[in-house]
Amino acid sequence: MAIHPPATHAVDAAAPTRTPGRLGIGMVGYSFMGVAHSQGWRNARSFFDPMLVPELVAIGGRDAGAAGDMARRFDWQHVETDWRALVARPDVDLVDICTPGDTHAEIAIAALEAGKHVLCEKPLANTVDEARSMADAAERARERGIRSMVGFTYRRVPAIALARQLVREGRIGELRHVRAQYLQDWLVDPETPLTWRLQKDRAGSGALGDIGAHIIDLTHFVTGESITGVSALTETFVRERPLPGATRGLSAEVGSGRGAVTVDDAALFLGRLSGGALATFEATRFATGRKNAIRLELNGSKGSIAFDFEDMNVLHVHDASTASRDAGFTRVIVTETTHPYVEHWWPAGHGLGYEHGFTHQAADLIDAIARGADPEPSFADGLAVQQVLAAVEASAADGSSWTPTDTVPRDGTTSG
Ligand code: SOE
Fold this sequence. Notes:
Strand order of the largest sheet: 8-11-12-7-13-14-15-16
Number of strands: 16
Number of domains: 2
Strand content: 15-25%
Oligomer: single chain
CATH architecture of the largest domain: 2-Layer Sandwich
Distance between the termini: 59 Å
Bound molecules: alpha-L-sorbopyranose
CATH superfamily of the largest domain: Dihydrodipicolinate Reductase, domain 2
Structural class: alpha/beta
Helix content: 25-40%
């Protein structure tokens, strides 16, 4: 329960006045993101004061047992085993897509054309063409008052939202550098099974699209600029893994041997921003000891900002005008009621977690729908990220920006 009174939302003069309405949610997918989104819809109802009350109408998934289990745990009213039936339900107003990337475009476009608002997990799609079709469908639907949003949920971490505010206020001056990393280590063990996230036809790409997409979007979000070009390296360190059936003792149906990893394990790239700043990006699932380290550092002419998700309630801020005697980074604990989103939660110092971003995402989307406003990040923002992902893959495949040195490696092989 919120200890502080809920915020009153600014209402446009032209927008409908507050009526106690409902918003029927239909969610497709029930794994990690399905759980994160389910709690988001439920908590948005309790911790915010939504102009439309989200109702968990239907959860969709091919495995009726697994979807039914989720329905029981989170109080979804109905289970649908065919996403088309879920989209067609008259009591579903919004379709929430939490499936692997290969299904996003088809479901999202069908839902928008059926007049349903859409929330779609990131990355928006597996290819630029799909993402563009989705952004076009979203634009057509928008003209009919239908809203859409892509789930770059880290935008709603209070410290990150504060970083954007500070940049917009000119606190770090002219931007020179962005250093963005997303470091995980869950693939270090070569026996970790070959799930859909490691298959190009399902996931589009590996660390690049899964977690690199987040730091690309955060760079766009925090700086307000776009990435105009890249030079990239990608690598797949473990090229074969056990099929999921082999580790779960299941039959050949789910596979009992080993299969090829068809995506990158790590992607590194350099970029230039539209304002002229230089940027470096690193997305890897092989950073041993790093669990979910989303690190962002911005250096400007007047100061710097640094963030690490593994200490997510903190933002480090440096003001370069401070006399050098006692200058340095200030550790700001981003839990004051004056900080973005925090007023809906706990007293200062009591901290938020990973799940709160999903609640903020749900609450912001409901608010935009109720006010007739455009939610962010939009499908156009998702398309912009997809274009950077594609450029990274093209650069890594092309390799023409790689210049071998003349050094002779100690093992006697040639360098390059
Ligand atoms: C898995 O690597 C993953 O769940 C991503 O898909 C999410 O987007 C990220 O938030 C956490 O890690």
